Amino acid sequence: MNKIENANKYIEENKSKAKSKPLYHFTPPIGWMNDPNGFSYYNGEYHLFYQYGPYGLFWDNIHWGHAVSDDLVNWKHRPVVMAPDIISDISGCFSGSAIEKDGKLYLMYTGHIDPNLGFDIVHKEIVQQQCLATYHIDGTVEKYENNPVIAQRELPAGYEIRDFRDPKVYKKGELYYCVLAGRNENSRGSILLYSSSDLVEWEFVADIYRRPVNDNTLFECPDLFEIDGKDVLIFSIMPCSPEYSEDVKQQVEYVIGSMNYKSNVFEEESRGIIDYGSNYYAPQTTQNKDGSQVIIGWVSDWSKINKEFVEEYGYNGIMTLPRRLGIDSGRLIQTPTADITKYEFERKVVKDFELMGELLLGGNPLNLHLHVEVDKLDSVFTIDLMKNEAKGFSFTFDPDLNFIKLFSSYKVAVDKSVVCELGGSVEIDVYVDNHCVELYVNGFAFTFLCYDFDKGHETSIHTQQKQLIKCLKHTEIAGVKIE
Ligand code: FRU
């Protein structure tokens, strides 16, 4: 039996052991999942591939998992499509993307070779090169026979092959382009641009983006796309070496501006953070069937902090809701894709009312959506979730200080404040699912994991002074199928 058959057999035989899954967030059948890959709309379906270690609960032995969807809400698991089984990807089929060409879907990904079979042991010996594969309608994938297609020979002098990964391919005019994360001559991150006319022969174009050396950052999973005539570059950030792990936070950032294909420089106009929560990394975008740009991210957890839970539940990895992207006054804004509303059942909807003190919204911590709209926040306003005598998760909005305080006394505590313009009208959406919470405030997004065996059930909102509320909607999300 080959490695793919082996993985698929293992999944079939063991998937019934996975339990306590979120009800409307994507998870793998069993085992470990990290980055979304090859996110695309092809042949009438959305495809989501992902970094997948089926046999264990922590990052190891990375294959590509696969699922399909008609609406970005319901997902059907499909067999694993790639396993690390050729010389160029023998230590892992790392992240990559998908693109349609002549009616076929091509996958481009990083083949990871680690002679020491570990992430960091002798880092200098690691080789990362870009490989090509074709997806067939029957759900199988065929790797190109002459992989890799971008290797050491296409990497300019000074850049290191040990950190050269995560190709995101797109088409502009007659040419295919791909952005890649690289490690430059200062041993810091750069975003590299390559071009090709056929996806096989690739040529280095330029190093289009880097941060000052003393930022001490390395990039992963770049993505470059257009919204409303602007170019948007996104990338995940990690420390360039472990000695900076205290100073450099893992997070995902964006830069809006224009990609100048003459000077080959990304001209920056504005920038920001994609998600302010504690658990968000390595997102990828695609164009949805109505033409808008949609992003899906990994509800990330590299640590083993939730070990006791994932061991009990048999899987480790959740994706965010797919979110529609927009640009508003130089800021990238996000809202969950509209189709989720079809699965929302109203528990309470109240419009134009005055609230003073606390409003209890009742139980069911697992699968709710709370929407609050105000024209102006008059004083401190709080949303309490999953509350019992001992624990809770809360979001406090302070209009005077213009910040949102995020607090959780659950297993992995959260206690931080994020500056956010709360002066004008405020629109809040909170999505609570089993083990994860997403908050959206005026297009800003916050993602959190929330594991605990003993969660509270109370949901409430409260104010310190009289507050006019334009709309309060409390719905239960039910009937989504991820199977
Ligand atoms: C980001 C990442 C990618 C890499 C993959 C390996 O989470 O480190 O850069 O391709 O995960 O699984």
Summing up helix and strand content along with how strands pair, one would put the structural category as: mainly beta
Helix % is under 10%
Uncertain segments? none
What is the tally of beta strands? 33
- Name the ligand types: beta-D-fructofuranose
Strand content: over 45%
Query: Biggest sheet, in brief?
Result: 6 strands, antiparallel
Terminal CA distance: 25 Å
Compute the average pLDDT: 95
What is the spatial order of strands in the main beta sheet? 22-33-24-29-30-31
Instruction: Give the helix tally.
Output: 2
Overall body shape? globular
Gyration radius, rounded: 22 Å
Quaternary structure type: single chain
Overview of this protein structure:
The chain is mainly β. It has helices spanning 3-14, 307-313, and strands spanning 31-42, 45-53, 63-69, 76-82, 93-101, 104-113, 127-135, 141-143, 164-172, 175-183, 189-196, 203-210, 217-227, 230-239, 251-260, 265-273, 281-287, 293-298, 315-316, 323-328, 331-336, 344-355, 358-362, 368-374, 381-387, 393-398, 403-408, 414-419, 426-433, 436-441, 444-449, 458-463, 467-477. A six-stranded antiparallel beta sheet has the order 22-33-24-29-30-31, with no helix packed on it. Strands 23-32-25-26-27-28 form a six-stranded antiparallel beta sheet, with no helix packed on it. The protein has a five-stranded mixed beta sheet with strand order 4-3-2-1-19. Strand 29 and strand 30 form a beta hairpin. The chain is globular, with a radius of gyration of 22 Å. It starts with a helix and ends in a 6-residue tail after the last strand. The mean pLDDT is 95.
